[in-house]
């Protein structure tokens, strides 16, 4: 009885930690997404669509350069979580030595990355872009600054991964909320009062990235309290993790290449102005990630712990519950984006040309983001278990298929064909790869349960959105439009949440307490 009570206490504590981390992640990522969505139209107005294309390119370049990180941030999260499961002095020393070793490696990689971008800045400026108004000198200077900006950010990904492994999600999100607020507010101030040149934007962002990395690194080492022990660089730590890190690195490299393939293709083949708008609508669709990322990041350390304990029953229960929560958060917003795409873009990008073409691109990207977000659960399951070969083989296959598909579809359909090719890749992952992952890692999981967990909130949210589109008169004023769209979203989210039995039970208990 005592043993059972202890297990229940541990499970209850783990649930509270996951809930707390998920809420903090949700607040942090939502704030980041909100500021991005608010400030992107402002940046386009102040900088112009061409200059904003360089901002979008910096994001893609940052993702591509992250290939040099070799999966070490994800490895740090997994290993720190594992070494924190027991408060043993030897494990605590290993934890400190591991982080010092990875820290040295990361700073070396960041220096190499910044130097490589600096050396190749002119070649990129001349050969990659198709500008109409910007001069090559301006583009080159912007690329140089964005290179050092990317280098300054790289160690932050290590510190943030390690803080997540320590379950310090609240602290991490507090740092990110403060920094992203300072970044956007300061950037608009600088562009408005100093100069509207894109170089000013990148210089300010570089300052913020240096500050963010320094603060996060300091707070991480302050939280990693090791009395009377000085952490040092130990090559033995690399030997322990190199197999998993190399596998995660290959997965990360192929994932980044595949996720950025459409943006790189558009930036190379189409005009810089077209890429600026494509990047903007991709960012808007990518806001859906901020609804799912909090759940994913909160669950990954717990998945790793459950696999290490061989707790298959608890893992299955947690996996199904997390799938329901993920669907309930993601699908209502995705349905609203799909149903009211033209209306949303006309509000958000009033100066954009060819809103109908943009809305078509936007819809395809939204579908892709939904599929990709839902696939993150079975992908994290595979990473937490240490089984990485399925994702690697799938990604390598699509690295060959995707560029050819983008080229063929863009020839016949224009820019719309590019996201369609990316959608096909995400559809394959969501169906075939997810099925094989469940079959091996959660053999008790029935595919009909996985589909049902997604289909019920999708049907509820879809019904609300379609009825609203058909029955509600669409207002003319911007404020009225926003109120109408917000109301439809809240109704769709409520209908979606009520399809989950656990949420219904919690709400019912709360209502009963109110009436007592």
Description:
This protein has helices at 2-47, 49-65, 72-83, 89-119, 121-127, 136-165, 169-193, 198-223, 235-269, 272-286, 289-309, 312-339, 341-348, 355-385, 389-413, 417-441, 447-471, 478-497, 501-515. It has 516 residues and is an all-alpha fold. The chain starts with a helix and ends with a helix.
Short structural description:
The chain has 19 helices and no strands. With 516 residues, the chain is mainly alpha-helical. The chain is globular, with a radius of gyration of 23 Å.
Percentage of residues assigned to helices: over 70%
Estimated structural class: mainly alpha
Termini separation comes to 33 Å
Rg from alpha-carbon coordinates: 23 Å
Report mean pLDDT, rounded to a whole number.
79
Order of helices and strands: HHHHHHHHHHHHHHHHHHH
Compute the number of helices.
19
Q: Could you list some keywords that capture this structure?
A:
516 residues, globular, disordered N terminus
Task: Spell out the blueprint of helices and strands.
Layout: H1 2-47, H2 49-65, H3 72-83, H4 89-119, H5 121-127, H6 136-165, H7 169-193, H8 198-223, H9 235-269, H10 272-286, H11 289-309, H12 312-339, H13 341-348, H14 355-385, H15 389-413, H16 417-441, H17 447-471, H18 478-497, H19 501-515
Helix pairs in contact: 1-2, 1-7, 1-10, 1-11, 2-6, 2-9, 2-10, 3-4, 3-6, 3-9, 3-11, 4-6, 5-6, 6-8, 7-8, 9-10, 9-15, 9-16, 10-14, 11-12, 11-14, 12-14, 12-17, 12-18, 13-14, 14-16, 15-16, 17-18
